[in-house]
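Please decode residue identities from the backbone states below.
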């Protein structure tokens, strides 16, 4: 696998880069090992498959290091954080670091549990390439509101890229900020959309050396797919399959036509 570098011709045109990474994901069949919550497992696998990747999902501690080694990237999601997942996460991160695999942290509901927050901070100390969170999760981790200066300062101090998703998605490496204005309101009414989107971030991080651009490209893909699915969906029940269809059929032309990036 050859990574796209930040100096490539598409690196400064986010829709074009997103389309390029989608094409490569489909041709190279990037494998993501997703240690994710039980609610999100099926949708995470389906999103990766629709985008062209390959998922694996075991949370068994005796298997996770081996599945991580044979994958191209690791997703760590803190939802349904039972004892087995805590052990699996620690082993998976160690394997990713030992074998040079990028890993992405999704600190689900850290604002709801002091023990989960403590565990998330321990994970952060082990240098995830990208942190994907929402405003409430960031507020708990950083102990401040999620404005651009706070996001940049947190990214710099932890040596990571932050992808903060919400009505507007903010992605920063501590210096640059990318804002993405795509996405549909129905995304908030379907469980695991955000969790599954983080798996796509992990896949793109295995393909592209610039973590900011990889994260922003993946967030753009999910946002545009949400817009396309929401245009015809009649509610959450029809939105979910429409979203997967949109990801499956997405291309550079659609991303360029519908992407709203600033």
């Amino acid at each position: 696998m050859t990574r796209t570098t930040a100096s490539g011709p598409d690196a400064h045109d986010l829709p074009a880069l997103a389309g390029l990474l989608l094409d490569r994901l489909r041709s190279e069949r990037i494998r993501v090992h997703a240690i994710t919550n039980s609610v999100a497992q099926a949708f995470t696998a389906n999103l990766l498959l629709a985008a062209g990747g390959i998922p694996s999902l075991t949370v068994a501690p005796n298997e996770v290091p081996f599945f991580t080694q044979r994958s191209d990237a690791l997703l760590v999601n803190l939802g349904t954080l039972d004892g087995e997942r805590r052990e699996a996460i620690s082993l998976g991160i160690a394997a990713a670091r030992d074998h040079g695999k990028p890993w992405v942290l999704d600190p689900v509901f850290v604002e709801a549990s002091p023990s989960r927050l403590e565990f998330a901070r321990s994970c952060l100390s082990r240098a995830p390439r990208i942190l994907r969170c929402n405003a409430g999760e960031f507020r708990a981790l950083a102990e401040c509101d999620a404005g651009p200066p706070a996001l940049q300062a947190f990214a710099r101090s932890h040596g990571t890229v932050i992808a903060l998703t919400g009505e507007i998605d903010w992605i920063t490496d501590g210096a640059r900020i990318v804002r993405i204005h795509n996405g549909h309101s129905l995304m908030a009414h379907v469980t695991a959309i955000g969790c599954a989107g983080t798996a796509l971030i992990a896949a793109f991080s295995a393909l592209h050396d610039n973590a900011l651009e990889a994260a922003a490209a993946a967030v753009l893909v999910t946002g545009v797919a949400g817009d396309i699915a929401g245009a015809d969906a009649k509610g959450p029940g029809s939105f979910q399959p429409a979203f997967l269809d949109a990801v499956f059929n997405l291309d550079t032309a659609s991303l360029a036509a519908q992407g709203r990036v600033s």
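Observation: The radius of gyration is 17 Å.
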